[in-house]
Design goal:
Strand content: 5-15%
Helix content: 40-55%
Structural class: alpha/beta
Largest sheet: 6 strands, parallel
Number of strands: 9
Radius of gyration: 20 Å
Order of helices and strands: EHEHHEHEHEEEEEHHHHHHHHH
Distance between the termini: 39 Å
Bound molecules: nicotinamide-adenine-dinucleotide
């Protein structure tokens, strides 16, 4: 309870409006209209388009006679140049708002385009905290994965190809005006994408829960997300058509996003970035691999919170000390990874031990993410965590 009476001010960020439910995607036209839009730029990737996921959105716009332009060239772990290209297309096409449909890659590019539409230069000039000068154009975001929570966060992540690293843009202008979360859009995810993205959401929930920036708001959301993911991720992975599982995973990913939008992340994210850029692993997979190793390292920083995670993942911690229960949380996460066939050793991915120094150097470029981590990390700690992960 002492946490509840701290003197610090708790900040909570959230989009203006979240619509959650089956078939909400069919109502996109009325959201476009209520935001005063007359020609949106739709931002997506070829996989989402081929899976037929644009149909409810296009149907809604066409029925309401709203013209649109289509930018469907988003790539995974999107390079910065895509945002700049999209912003150019936005202006050339005379668009006045952005609708992003897809996983975190498409939503992040949509967010980037919405701010670069009203700002000069390249998106690489505004990476960091609060460097976006002008408010962007309105954006509506529809996730098709249950993972990143990008539809509710105030950040987007792009790849700086020249430096071979990922960079983030944090700004209140990046928050969506409207997030439309339709679990039906996630039904077509293949099992591997379901596992990787669902584990990304778990990492958000766990990292923000134990973060030094956690607040009562982020705790409540993170706890529910951890519980839902523990129960429903294996079901959604095993049977993609299980609507109950998809529904709860969509909820979990969105509330985990709302949690970390205010509570922050930690060292799992910091150390996963070099895996993504070096081996072109999906963001969720690289996070999942690092999760148990960083959790084990972090236990002394907040044993009570880690013990709670064990309970939230269904473990009986009755009669155990916080530290004993905290170790059970790591085991529960390892069991969850096993249940969706996600190996969590670097060597399982053919990564040679001789690459570890390169990974350590990459991880040390992300020290901003060490700040909210519950335990301080020095370069030697990063080395030991990667060695353990190997
Ligand atoms: P993604 O957007 O890269 O999509 C992965 C693949 O799944 C793509 O090939 C896509 O076409 C396909 N796909 C998406 N939805 C599908 C569906 N319903 N059916 C079939 N195929 C589908 O993956 P992601 O994990 O959602 O996003 C990862 C990106 O999000 C990374 O760049 C990461 O850095 C970023 N991210 C952003 C935030 C944020 O708050 N802004 C948070 C976490 C991660």
């Amino acid at each position: 309870m002492t946490e509840m009476v701290q003197e610090r001010v708790h900040v909570f960020y959230c989009p203006h409006k979240i619509l959650f439910g089956l078939n909400v995607a069919r109502g996109v036209a009325s959201e476009v209209r209520s935001l005063g839009g007359s020609k949106p730029l739709l931002v997506t990737d070829p996989g989402v388009s081929q899976a037929g996921l644009l149909a409810p959105v296009l149907g809604s716009l066409e029925e309401a006679s709203i013209p649109y332009a289509l930018f469907d060239r988003v790539e995974p772990e999107p390079p910065a140049r895509l945002v700049d290209q999209g912003a150019r297309m936005f202006r050339e096409e005379g668009c006045d708002m952005v609708v992003g449909v897809g996983g975190g890659s498409s939503l992040d590019v949509a967010k980037g385009i919405s701010v670069m539409a009203t700002n000069q230069g390249s998106v690489l000039d505004v990476c960091g905290f609060d460097l976006v000068k002008n408010r962007g154009v309105p954006k509506i975001l529809l996730p098709t994965t249950a993972g990143t929570g990008s539809e509710v966060t105030r950040v987007f992540v792009i790849t700086d190809e020249a430096e071979n690293t990922k960079k983030a843009v944090y700004s209140p202008y990046v928050l969506a005006e409207v997030a439309m979360v339709d679990p039906l859009l996630t039904m077509s995810m293949p099992a591997k994408v379901t596992a990787d993205t669902g584990l990304d959401a778990l990492v958000h929930a766990i990292e923000t829960y134990v973060s030094v920036n956690a607040t009562p708001f982020s705790d409540i959301l993170a706890e529910r997300a951890i519980e839902w993911i523990g129960t429903y991720l294996p079901m959604a992975w095993a049977k993609g058509s299980n609507l109950t599982a998809r529904y709860h995973m969509a909820l979990a990913a969105t509330v985990a996003g709302m949690a970390f939008a205010s509570g922050g992340l930690g060292a799992v994210h910091g150390l996963c970035y070099p895996l993504g850029t070096e081996y072109h692993m999906s963001h969720g997979r690289s996070n999942a691999i690092m999760l148990p190793h960083v959790m084990r390292f972090n236990i002394p920083g907040n044993p009570e919170k880690f013990a709670n995670i064990a309970s939230l993942l269904g473990r009986d911690v009755e009669g155990l000390s916080f530290v004993e229960a905290a170790h059970m949380a790591v085991e529960a996460v390892e069991d969850l990874l096993d249940s969706v066939q996600v190996p969590y050793r670097l060597r399982d991915y053919g990564i040679p031990e001789s690459d570890l120094p390169k990974l350590v150097a990459g991880g040390m470029k992300q020290t901003r993410l060490f700040v909210p981590n519950p335990r301080d990390l020095k370069e030697q700690d990063v080395k030991e965590i990667f060695q353990e992960a190997y």
